[in-house]
Amino acid sequence: MTENELKKLLEDMTLTEKTEQLVQLNGDFYGSSEELTGPAAAFHLTKEQTYRVGSILSEHGAAHLKEMQDKIMSAQPHHIPAMFMADVIHGYKTSFPVPIALGASFDPELVRKTAEISAKEAAAAGIHVTFSPMSDLSRDGRWGRCMESFGEDPLLNSKMSAAMVTGFQGDNCGEKGKVASCFKHFAAYGAVQSGRDYNVAELSERTLFEDYLPAYKAAVDAGAEMAMTAFNTLDRVPCTVSKKLLRGILRDKMGFDGVIISDYNAIGEAVIHSAADDSRDAAKKAINAGVDIDMMSECYVNNLEDLINSGEVSEKVLDEAVMRVLRLKNKLGLFEDPYKDASEDDEKRIIGCDEHMAFSRRSAAECAVMLKNNGIFPLRAKKALVIGKLCESGEILGFWSFFADKSKTVTLRDALTQVCADTEFEFIPSDTADEKVLAAAGNADAVLLVLGEDQTFTGEARSCTDVSLDDAQKKLFDDVISVNPNTAVLLFGGRPLAIPEIAEKAAGILEMWLPGTAGCLGIADIISGKVSPCGRLSMSFPYCTGQYPISYSAFSTGRPKDNSVKGYIPFLSNYMDAPNIPLYPFGYGLTYTSFEYSPVTLSTAELTMNGSITAGVTVTNTGDKQGCETVQLYIRDLKGSVVRPLRELKGFKKITLEAGGSADISFEITADMLRFYGIDMEFAAEKGDFVLYIGGDSSTENSAEFKLI
Ligand code: BGC
Fold first, then answer.
1. CB 112 less than 6 A from any atom of ligand 1
2. Which 3 state secondary structure label does DSSP give 694?
3. 473 pLDDT exceeds 90?
4. In 188-236, which ranges are continuous DSSP H helix?
5. pLDDT one-digit tens code per residue, 136-172
6. What are the pLDDT digits (tens) for 84-117?
7. Which of 40, 81, 146, 312 could disulfide-link to 138, CB 3.0 to 4.6 Å?
């Protein structure tokens, strides 16, 4: 339709119809019974009304959605098709590694491709919009949703968010095999206090702008069609009713003109937050703040019409919201073809096809992070004992695997048996080891202990106060390592775990994350040596839970402690019982080879405001195997009108080098990269001295200095 035709349609619609376009209901409303029961009954809707809403949540399957679309279009006075939206976060039927793992790939193209495949599968199943990417920055592993974040760094998060949007939407979400992308949760949901889900976020405006907003902005700039509000309050206002945030920052400052949807019942929850008197007041505040679609609360459906009639909400505000929804439907091509790509044939052909399974395998291998290796990997043992109940668990896909085809999940046991043909494995799927098991462990050439957390430990509302292993797993490790020092730990999980004892004593540690449907095959590729590990931590692994929140991008304090000095020093900024630095820093990860960096060279040590300088290093593969290195660029601004972080990631390049090979890697530095929110909240670079680091992780000391003049 043309813009004029859409406007004409809007003019023709009654107030009720307009309101209905702004309502999203889930599958509970569409059962076979004529009566709505349970929570659905609380919305006081007739069954007929439920078929007139503008969008539906979490329903999927081509045949089912075509039938629903028919019903909706015949119930609709103007036969407006519905949008079907769902959480396709790390895959639809074929699961990919969870986002914290995807972040660890440091490979935006890989991440784009996972989204492209997910979109193909979801589109064939009739889905039009996915609630992804989650662009929330996370520096707190207590928060179960850190699993859905690309990690602790604004630049990495931005690159990955943009890559996902591009993967889902391509150039145009209306094209075949594409879905519209809804980034979330605006804003700063990842900063919930104490890592407790739904808790308040208390941030300075500067931290919000510098660290938390860039990834959402990257999603906007990549063309994301939708944005979702966050559950939390920010500066004491629930994000979902914050005009300052939604109209002021998201629309006006960031230039977002797509559809804004609330999170699930978040408008209703404004009342519980005590930010609105009742659901009517909440509806008024949300629509005036800029929320177009009400996901799963009864606030809009029961109050918007009345609010317009009473003049408390202007019809112009309503019309703008409805127009945005109609425009998105139009972009998706639904007025021409309301089923879009829904096709039973395509579902059969595309979903879970060999290509998708192969990419699931490959992406898990690229995301896994080798944390320690005393030579146990690649595994050359003739006989290995694999202990741990997770070795045959299928619960390794991640929280958002409700749609996944579980029948295709490859367990670690299956994968090791299939891929590591030169090793004879014995599997003990238990987290306890009796004397017999310990005797077998003592006699094995190597032991692989499968520890960590399955997918039920991370995700929404899965916060915890202790990110170390549970007592049974700790004891299992102690028992086994005492009989066989050639014991490596394979870690599953969606959060960084505090494992200082394991880091000290294990012969090797491989972080596998929650690797997805065929992911364990990729893990086995690493264990067998077919593939060299190349993942780098997207979140610091803490020494202990009490270090949270933690990031490499910290500040000096007035009494800094020199981290190379061990132990507690009174009256300095440090802990009595733990170091300040994490166990494994951001950007860290080992490979099957070693790399050497030349000192950093600069084309000139003076950068002008409009100029650029080139910073370079020569990276050499000094080992005897081909390997992949993630070359990372960090910059420290030595002085500013406000205190500046000790370092910030400003670029990264992933390179593959043959044994003995070397490459010259360079980064172009411009003043734009040095901008920050100064004392007057102006986003600008300030003249002065900078240190630039290039190395293999965030703790590198390979540096050079330059001046911005
Ligand atoms: C989550 C969102 C999700 C929505 C719809 C909410 O509980 O916070 O991330 O998109 O549910 O399933």
1. no
2. strand
3. yes
4. 205-207, 213-221
5. 999 999 999 999 999 999 999 999 999 999 999 999 9
6. 999 999 999 999 999 999 999 999 999 999 999 9
7. 146
Q: Give the pair of three-digit tokens for residue 490.
A: 């394979």
The model carries a pTM of 0.98
Q: How far is the C-alpha of 332 from the C-alpha of 335, rounded, in Å?
A: 8
Q: Is 672 annotated in the active site? A: no
CB 379 within 8 A of CB 446: yes
Nearest CA owner, ligand 1 atom 2: 263
Q: In the prediction, which pLDDT does 60 show?
A: 98
Ligand 1 atom 6: the closest Cα is on which residue? 264
Ligand 1 neighbour 366 (Cβ under 6 A): no
Mean pLDDT of the chain: 97
Break the chain down into helix, strand, coil percent, rounded to 5. 35, 20, 45
Q: What is the DSSP string of 506-561?
A: -SEEEEEES--TTHHHHHHHHHHTSS------SSPBPSSGGG-S--SS----SS--
Q: Which of 25, 26, 131 to mutate to test the pocket of ligand 1 (most atoms within 8 A of CB)?
A: 131
Environment class of 555 (CB within 10 Å of its CB; exposed 0-12, middle 13-18, buried 19+): exposed
Q: Grade residue 34 by pLDDT with cuts at 50, 70 and 90.
A: confident
Catalytic option among 211, 263, 346, 431: 263
536-546 per-position pLDDT tens digit: 999 999 999 99
525-549: average pLDDT = 98
